[in-house]
Design a protein that fits this description.
- By secondary structure, the chain is of the alpha+beta class.
- The chain folds into two domains: 10-222 and 336-420, Aminopeptidase (3-Layer(aba) Sandwich); 224-334, 2-Layer Sandwich (Alpha-Beta Plaits), CATH 3.30.70.360.
- The protein is 31% helix and 21% strand.
- The protein has helices at residues 10-27, 46-60, 153-171, 199-202, 249-259, 300-318, 338-341, 345-357, 372-378, 402-420; strands at 63-67, 73-77, 86-92, 107-109, 117-118, 125-126, 142-144, 179-185, 206-210, 218-219, 224-233, 276-284, 288-297, 325-334, 385-386, 390-391, 399-401.
- The strands form four sheets. It has a seven-stranded mixed β-sheet.
- Strand 16 and strand 17 form a beta hairpin.
- Helix 8 packs across helix 10.
- The relative contact order is 0.20.
Length: 422
C-alpha cells in the first residue's frame, strides 16, 4: 500500500496554500544550469531566483541572510531552546539541462481523478498506465508544466517546502525549535554538489536535503558516480576521394556505443542496486568525435569495473585502425554517502522521529542518483535526503503533488522540534 494511503495532517493542510503559491512563482523562473562551464554558477540566470529568495528571507526577518558571488543563498532561523544544536536544510536552485526550461507555465489539476491528463502543448500526456506513481495520487492537487518544458520540481519543490516551513515557524514562536541553517545552492544538476558551501561558517550539526520524490522517502545511500569524456581522432579527407584514406571518427564513436552492452548496464535495463554505463551526448565530425558518458554504481569497486569496460571497448574499436586514436578522460563526481552517514545514527533517528510525528512512516531505499548530500556527507556534514513530492524529473512530463510538498514542509517543522530536544 502506498505510504500516502492513510496520511492526513492538519499541519500539512495548513501549509498547502503557501507551498503552492511559492511553487508556482518559483518554477516560472528559469534557472537551468549548463555543462562545461568554468564559473560557478554555470548560468547567471540562477541569480534570478537566488535574489528573490534573498529578498524573501530578509523580509521574513531571518539572521545572516547572504547571497555570495557563487550564487549560494544562506540564512539562519534562530532556535528558542537553549543548548539545542543547529541543523541545516538545503535545496538546489538549478534545474536539469535534459529538457527545455524557458517559459514554464504551471498548471494545477485539482482533485486528480486518476485518469489521463492531456497537457496543452507538445502532445504530452500524463498517463497512469505509463507513470504508475500517478495512480496513487487520486484526490491530490497536482501541478504540471504545459507539455513542452520541464516543471522544475527538482528542486523548486524543495525550495518551496523550506520557505513555507520557515514562515510557519516564525508565525509560531512558542513552538520549540532548534536553530535552522538554510542554504539554497547552485549547479547541483551538473555535479557541483554544494562544493562552494563554507561548512565552517554554515556551522550545522548535520543537514537534510529536500530533494527526494515520494512522500515517506528518507534516503541516506546514493550512487557513486564518475563521468567520462571519450575523444576519438579520425582522418578526414574530401569524401569524393576518400577511398582507403578516410577514417571517420564519428562512425567509430557510433561503433563504440554499439559495442557496449545493451541487455545490461544501461538505465533502461537496470534497477535497484544495479549500476550502468550511459552515453548522454555524442558530437563530432569525421575528423573528431566526442562521447560524454556517465558511470554509476553503489559499489566503488563495481564502478571501477564499469570504467575499465568502457576503456576496453573504446580501445578494441579504435585500435582496429592504427590511423585513428582515442583518449578516455574519467573524473569522479561523487561517492556513495552511506558510509559517512551511518557513522552518525542520530541523524537518521531524528529524521525518522520527525516523519512519525507527522504521521508518515519513513521508507529508506538507495537513491539512484546523487544529491548535494552525497558530497557534503563526505566533507563531514552528514546529509540524508528527504522527499519533496515531485515526480518524473528531467522531462516534460514532470509533475508534483501539492499535498506531498506540504508534507515535506511539515516534516521540516517537525525536524526543528525533534532536534530542539536533542
Amino acid at each position: 500500500m502506498p505510504v500516502t494511503a492513510s496520511y492526513t495532517s492538519p499541519l500539512a493542510e495548513s501549509l498547502a496554500a503557501d507551498v503552492l503559491e511559492r511553487f508556482q512563482r518559483y518554477v516560472r523562473i528559469d534557472t537551468q544550469s549548463a555543462l562545461d562551464q568554468s564559473t560557478t554558477p554555470s548560468t547567471q540566470k540562477q541569480f534570478d531566483l537566488a535574489k528573490l529568495l534573498l529578498a524573501e528571507l530578509q523580509e521574513l526577518g531571518l539572521e545572516g541572510v547572504e547571497l555570495d558571488e557563487q550564487c549560494y543563498v544562506t540564512a539562519t532561523l534562530p532556535g528558542n531552546v537553549a543548548g539545542a544544536p543547529a541543523i541545516g536544510v538545503l535545496a538546489h536552485l538549478d534545474v536539469s539541462y535534459d529538457a527545455p526550461s524557458t517559459g514554464v507555465e504551471p498548471i494545477v489539476h485539482r482533485n486528480y481523478d486518476g485518469g489521463v491528463i492531456e497537457l496543452p502543448r507538445g502532445g504530452t500526456v500524463l498517463d497512469p498506465a505509463a507513470m504508475p506513481d500517478l495512480s496513487h495520487k487520486v484526490g491530490h492537487d497536482l501541478v504540471s508544466a504545459s507539455g513542452d518544458t520541464l516543471l522544475g520540481a527538482d528542486d523548486k519543490a524543495g525550495v518551496s517546502a523550506i520557505m513555507t516551513a520557515v514562515k510557519h515557524l516564525l508565525a509560531n514562536p512558542g513552538a520549540p525549535r532548534c536553530t535552522l541553517k538554510i542554504a539554497f545552492t547552485p549547479d547541483e544538476e551538473i555535479g557541483s554538489l554544494a562544493a562552494g558551501l563554507d561548512l565552517e561558517k554554515f556551522a550545522a550539526r548535520c543537514a537534510y536535503t529536500i530533494d527526494g520524490s515520494e512522500i515517506g522517502e528518507l534516503s541516506y545511500e546514493s550512487f557513486s558516480a564518475k563521468h567520462a569524456i571519450v575523444t576519438i581522432e579520425g582522418v578526414d579527407v574530401h569524401p569524393g576521394y576518400a577511398a582507403g584514406k578516410m577514417v571517420s571518427a564519428l562512425r567509430l564513436a557510433a561503433e563504440v556505443l554499439a559495442a557496449l552492452p545493451s541487455d545490461r548496464l544501461t538505465p533502461a535495463t537496470s534497477s535497484g542496486r544495479q549500476g550502468y554505463i550511459h552515453a548522454t551526448e555524442l558530437t563530432g565530425t569525421p575528423s573528431q568525435a566526442r562521447i560524454r558518458v556517465i558511470l554509476r554504481d553503489f559499489d566503488d569497486q563495481q564502478l571501477t569495473v564499469h570504467e575499465e569496460l568502457l576503456k576496453e571497448t573504446v580501445a578494441q574499436v579504435v585500435d582496429a585502425d592504427p590511423r585513428a586514436s582515442a583518449t578516455v578522460e574519467v573524473k569522479r563526481d561523487y561517492h556513495n554517502m552511506k558510509v559517512e552517514i551511518e557513522k552518525d545514527p542520530a541523524v537518521i533517528a531524528a529524521a525518522e522521529a520527525a516523519y512519525r510525528a507527522e504521521g508518515i512512516e519513513p521508507v529508506s531505499h538507495p537513491i539512484r542518483g546523487g544529491t548535494d548530500g552525497s558530497a557534503l556527507s563526505l566533507r563531514g556534514l552528514p546529509t540524508p535526503n528527504i522527499f519533496d513530492g515531485g515526480y518524473d524529473y528531467h522531462s516534460v512530463r514532470e509533475w508534483a503533488s501539492v499535498q506531498e510538498m506540504a508534507a515535506a514542509a511539515a516534516v521540516i517543522v517537525r525536524l526543528a522540534e525533534v532536534w530542539s530536544s536533542r
